[in-house]
Design goal:
- The chain is mostly helical.
- It is built from three helices and two strands, in the order H-H-E-E-H.
- A hairpin with a 5-residue loop joins strand 1 and strand 2.
């Protein structure tokens, strides 16, 4: 008894070639990879499009009135006291890279030739 493989949809080689028709070289794996690459391209476009906050007196996350107490995040939006932290509003700003850059600028590397030895 002959069993097909997952790549041939569990069909024999003859039936698989017949079902493919004019494109025998295209398999499910190839089509899945193409679909994933298209999805990644769409996601990248969505990341580039950043909506603008027009109501500056309301929280970006819950739309609660913040008045004078609104917290402005580095991502550019205003939040209430409940959503002011980056993990509370799914901030897209890279705080870790910013902090590392600040440490690199403010703390230069010490070279042993500059140290005096007694």
């Amino acid at each position: 008894m002959f069993y097909g493989t997952k790549t041939t949809n569990f069909m024999c080689s003859k039936c698989f070639k017949d079902s493919q028709g004019s494109s025998p070289g295209v398999t499910e794996k190839d089509s899945k990879m193409e679909a994933q690459s298209e999805e990644k391209a769409v996601e990248e476009e969505k990341k580039e499009e950043k909506p603008i906050q027009t109501k500056k007196n309301r929280c970006w996350n819950c739309n609660k009135k913040v008045g004078l107490l609104g917290f402005t995040c580095k991502c550019g939006y205003i939040f209430c006291s409940k959503h002011r932290h980056a993990d509370d509003h799914e901030c897209d700003y890279d705080h870790m890279a910013d902090d590392r850059e600040a440490l690199r600028k403010n703390n230069p590397m010490l070279v042993t030739s500059k140290l005096e030895t007694s």
